[in-house]
Backbone:
């Protein structure tokens, strides 16, 4: 089949017409987008203020309030994510305006993230185009070819304490303040980093002046730490599970990568709302223009989207054990106890588990 860019969804041989079906759900409702923003920003601001007020009584209460506040910050990030896909509002202009405003709240330069994330959608599951906004994943054969020091570095990188603890806060608070890795030709994307940094600096300086720098840090650091870790966790479990999809570029297919390389993360209703339906990740990867508030509707109406890899909250914990893609067994595996000599890469072939 022909490889396609982000947002595409063509007919898969032997299946129903995905493009026609998904197209029915692409139209955003402006009122619902505004309602989602208000239902998220208002309680976020109120809870943040309650955390600040609670400092005079008990920091334990402050930390307790940081949990729902961080959840709302995750939801704001996902709404910005929808703006980047042009799916929250019908108007491109309003998607971009709201996306840039939310960028200051979620510490993510909108234009730079938008371009990088588009590459992730266009290359997810492609072994020959890794590194486009995904969690670094090596094949078992590549791991076996590493030196001892290189293996240690990869093990540290893949350790849950690092990938869900240290790395997320560093990435959102520090890494995204710089333009490292952005192509020189991405002038708008680079400018978005600088302007977002300036806006964040002004907002933080204003809050520190009003509330005090100590109070600001006591309130916002736990919120940012929890939200960034939760955000990375969501992204991780929806692509890193045992029976995910990886294929060499010659045989890589957009639809198969979307349906089988992205999980359906079946969360309890409160968490599903807090994460703006991002758990329907397989449908989102098939057509990123579908608004988050129509993903459930699409899923319920078409059994073809229900026969995918489903993860419950409990089952998703096992995803932390998978570290490498085994090209021979065609599944994610953990680190081997012994590291034998590397083999020649297997010949390119279409996946037996996910036939067209």
Residues:
């Amino acid at each position: 089949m022909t490889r396609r860019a982000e947002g595409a969804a063509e007919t898969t041989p032997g299946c129903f017409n995905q493009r026609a079906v998904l197209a029915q759900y692409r139209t955003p409702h402006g009122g619902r987008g505004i309602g989602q923003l208000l239902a998220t920003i208002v309680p976020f601001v109120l809870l943040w203020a309650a955390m600040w007020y609670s400092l005079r009584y008990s920091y334990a209460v402050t930390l307790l309030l940081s949990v729902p506040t961080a959840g709302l910050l995750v939801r704001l990030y996902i709404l910005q994510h929808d703006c980047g896909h042009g799916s929250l509002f019908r108007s491109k202009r309003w998607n971009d305006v709201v996306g840039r405003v939310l960028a200051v709240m979620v510490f993510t330069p909108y234009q730079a993230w938008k371009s990088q994330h588009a590459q992730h959608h266009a290359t997810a599951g492609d072994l020959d185009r890794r590194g486009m906004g995904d969690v670094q994943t090596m094949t078992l054969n590549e791991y076996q070819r590493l030196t001892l020091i290189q293996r240690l570095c990869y093990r540290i990188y893949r350790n849950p304490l690092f990938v869900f603890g240290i790395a997320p806060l560093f990435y959102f608070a520090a890494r995204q303040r710089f333009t490292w890795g952005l192509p020189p030709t991405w002038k708008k994307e680079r400018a978005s980093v600088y302007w977002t940094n300036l806006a964040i600096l002004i907002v933080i300086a204003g809050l520190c002046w009003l509330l005090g720098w100590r109070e600001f840090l006591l309130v916002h650091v736990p919120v940012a730490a929890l939200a960034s870790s939760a955000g990375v966790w969501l992204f991780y479990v929806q692509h890193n599970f045992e029976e995910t999809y990886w294929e060499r570029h010659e045989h890589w297919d957009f639809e198969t990568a979307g349906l089988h390389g992205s999980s359906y993360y079946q969360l309890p209703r409160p968490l599903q709302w807090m994460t703006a339906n991002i758990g329907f990740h397989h449908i989102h990867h098939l057509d990123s223009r579908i608004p988050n508030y129509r993903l459930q509707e699409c899923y319920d109406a078409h059994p073809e989207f229900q026969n995918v890899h489903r993860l419950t909250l409990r089952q998703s914990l096992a995803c932390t054990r998978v570290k490498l893609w085994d090209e021979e067994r065609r599944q994610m595996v953990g680190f081997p106890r012994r590291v034998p000599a590397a083999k020649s890469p297997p010949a390119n072939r279409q996946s037996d588990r996910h036939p067209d």
Q: What stands out?
A: The longest strand covers residues 264-266. The chain has 15 helices and five strands. Residues 25-108+159-241+264-321 form one domain.
